[in-house]
Amino acid sequence: MASENKLLFARPPAHDAGQKFEGSENIEVTPDFEGFHQHNDMFSRGFWDPRFRNKVTMRFFKSFVKPTERVRDEPGFSQQDFALRNGPWAVTEMLAEMHKDRDRRDGFTDDFTPHLPPKVDPADIGSPSTAARHVKKVAKLYGADLVGITKYDPRWTYRSKFSARKVVSKPVEVPPEITNVIVLGKSMDYGLVRMSPTATGSTSAAAGYAEDAITLLALAQYIRSLGYIAIANQNDTNLAIPYALQAGLGEYGRNGLVITRDYGPRVRFGRILTNMPMAHDTPVSFGVEKTCEICRRCANNCPPQAIDHGPPSTYTFNQSNAKGIRKWTTDGEKCFKFWVMKGSDCANCIRSCPYNKDHGKLWSKVMMWMLRTPLRKLALVMDDKTRLHDQIKPSSWWRSENGKYAVLERAKDHALDPKLKGQQDKLKAVRDAQKAKEADAG
Ligand code: SF4
Ligand code: SF4
Prior knowledge:
Elements: H1 4-7, E1 28-29, H2 42-48, H3 55-62, H4 79-97, H5 128-141, E2 146-151, E3 161-163, E4 168-170, E5 180-187, H6 190-193, H7 203-225, E6 230-233, H8 240-246, E7 251-252, E8 258-259, E9 267-274, H9 288-294, H10 297-300, E10 325-326, H11 332-342, H12 348-351, H13 362-371, H14 376-386, H15 395-399, H16 405-408, H17 418-441
Antiparallel strand pairs: 1-10, 2-5, 3-4, 5-9, 6-9, 7-8
Helix pairs in contact: 3-11, 4-7
Bound molecules: iron/sulfur cluster (2 copies).
Residues 253-255, 291-292, 295-298, 352-355 line the site of one iron/sulfur cluster (SF4).
């Protein structure tokens, strides 16, 4: 088994630790900041850290390609549910396996390998604002829901990549010409997210990954065909969240995710590093951080209690947190252990967020407006009553017309299954204990 010391050999990219973070006024990068090594993310640790590399974790990983591995008699974990979830993973897995002979895992630990990169001189792409407008239009045509552009920042580049096959770190190579980052947001299915934490619910992430990969590959090839460098990243090479904030796609939330205006936290982010000159977007603010100060719904609904109830801080739970950033931080170890135990990923911190709505609906528009104003406390009380953050029975997806959640919103489809109810009761007990602790402390 590899020890952590064996993994630490990669050379970190140069960065200025004192440089201000432009993505949010409420996140501070302190002088203690250290870049992130990919072997410290929880998925990598599942391969090398003796505390997490075990039979249960291996069965969890295996279940993404062997759909019967974690099938059981529990709502949302039937063979049909796992088959639904694993369908889109075939796309992502196929891309990840294509260059395994070169110890690459495209999209997970390595950028997407270009398909026959065209060798052409840079085309006339007009002014930076014209180029930005064209890139955004093309990205949306290829499937992106949100697009933002920001400058490249070496602080967010991993200090090293991770090879799960060889269980060693690998150096990260970013060409010195890279100046800009295009951030692509892909929303996940609202109805499926409402079924978290089940295999049915995690189909939302599976489909998001597959769609994101296709959009990234297509847009990167478009940019290369204009004669510029384009490096498409999904889970690899750099941190998505600071770039999404810098590119103005949303605000940072207590759940450790970017909350977007149009889809709340229900968004996956891909990045393309490029030298194409383009105008940059600016960070946005629409009251999320003020809402998070008084709302703890994600923390209350997190089954293993991995989300902090307190104010932003530089506290790190463990090595899976980036060091030297004042922000809300989540405990990745608790989160990962829950996923492994459950046999599928969880999105309760997305499902329960008041910003996770069908934003076409009138109620959502009213809520979004109220959450931007001093009426946000009242908005949260009113939203609590709607039960729009409750889990929906996974079986209702199979009964619905085209999986549309409008059909799923019937009260009888809310998760009243005894096993799920037991889980809700446990959460309530944890919440009550937390409240009692806060009352004692206060
Ligand atoms: S994904 Fe689930 S377990 Fe992980 S932090 Fe969110 S709510 Fe908690
Ligand atoms: S659930 Fe509430 S506290 Fe958590 S991210 Fe959403 S708004 Fe913030």
